[in-house]
Specification:
By secondary structure, this protein is an all-beta fold. The chain is built from no helices and five strands. The structure holds zinc ion (ZN) (2 copies).
């Protein structure tokens, strides 16, 4: 399974788990901002149908959930 590109060592060994990303090669860690989800990581928004709901707010269409 390929990871994302690590900003530090430029290898595709950067894996994101929820809000936390970590490079398996160099150990670089960073927090992923909620809006950086780019789909597939948030909950499904009932309004726009995209998986961009973080902390009960859809970062795509702005719908709010309680
Ligand atoms: Zn790295
Ligand atoms: Zn939405």
């Amino acid at each position: 399974m390929a990871g994302k590109k690590c900003p530090k060592c430029n290898q595709f060994t950067f894996f994101v788990n929820g809000r936390n990303g970590e490079c398996k090669k160099c150990g670089y860690k960073m927090q992923i901002p909620a809006n950086e989800g780019k789909g597939g990581k948030g909950k499904k928004c009932l309004n726009c149908g995209k998986y961009t709901v973080f902390d009960n707010v859809c970062s795509n269409c702005g719908a709010r959930y309680k």
